[in-house]
Amino acid sequence: MDLISRINAKYNIPDALRERCRGKEIIIELRFHLFKSGSGSESRWQKDLDNLLKVPLDVLQKDADEHTLHKAGLGLLDNDKSIFGIYCCKDFVEVESEEGVEIVIHDAKLVRMKLERK
Q1: What's the pTM?
Q2: Which residue in 11, 44, 57, 82 is deepest, having the highest Cβ count within 10 Å?
């Protein structure tokens, strides 16, 4: 089962959420939780953030990058041109089942409005 099918099977992403995101200037937060075992699986936790970003950003789009995924994405963004900001970080988890990525999507205009009010 490919990544997009697994995401769709695990999470029910409502069409209303897709509609709320599309056509907006978006700011995305990504927090990567990487499993760091003591058995030398360094390739999982020594990944560069820029390399970790590629797949999630492709998957969020209407049409995932044809060179990597070869199919439709989740449809939350029309394409990555609508991303106006990215905050990302990685941390380490001791339990393998806690490995994954958290993604939060913000409307950039609403974020700017909040910042201007302070």
Answers
A1: 0.77
A2: 57
